[in-house]
Amino acid sequence: MADAGSRLILAFDFGTRRIGVAVGNELLASARELAPLPARDGIPDWAQVARRVDEWRPDLFVVGLPLNMDGSESVMSTRARKFGKRLYGRYGIPCEMVDERGSTREAKSIAREAGHRGNYREQSVDGIAAVLILEGWFARREGLPPR
Questions:
Q1: Closest to 100 (Cα-Cα) out of 20, 40, 7
Q2: Predicted TM-score of the model (pTM)
Q3: What is the pLDDT of residues 18-51, one digit of tens each?
Q4: Any idea what the Cα angle at residue 138 is, between residues 134 and 144, rounded to 5°?
Q5: How far is residue 118's CA from residue 41's CA, in Å, rounded to a whole number?
Q6: DSSP string spanning 82-97?
Q7: Hey, which of 5, 25, 50, 95 would disulfide with 88, CB 3.0 to 4.6 Å?
Q8: What is the DSSP annotation of 28-42?
Q9: What residues contact residue 76 under an 8 Å CB cut-off, 6+ apart?
């Protein structure tokens, strides 16, 4: 396990059909998008998750917590927390939940600026959202306000 400040992190944007994934390096505070994981009613193909964990050997998981705009918990918050607990239970790697309010909207805006045509089922923005979640986590660690 790497020391805080130099950890490799896998971040997830939990969804019922797809789970966005990003990988980041805490020392560089950089993140990049990975291919999303397909999910069936929020349940990923755990074999694909295991392949990502084996490939990247993360020191920490970060999972976006979809709170309501007023900060209260939602049904999706409960499901995202359960996903985070399952990650920890399966791999024994610590998992932190992070407020992801606005990340999907911001991801869609970034995608549109890059020429996305708006068919989010065909071309998801889940990976971009996972990058934003991880970048927000980095910012908070550095004492910066969320985006």
A1: 20
A2: 0.85
A3: 999 999 999 888 899 999 999 999 999 999 999 9
A4: 130
A5: 23
A6: HHHHHHHHHH---EEE
A7: 95
A8: TTEEEEEEEEEEETT
A9: 14, 66
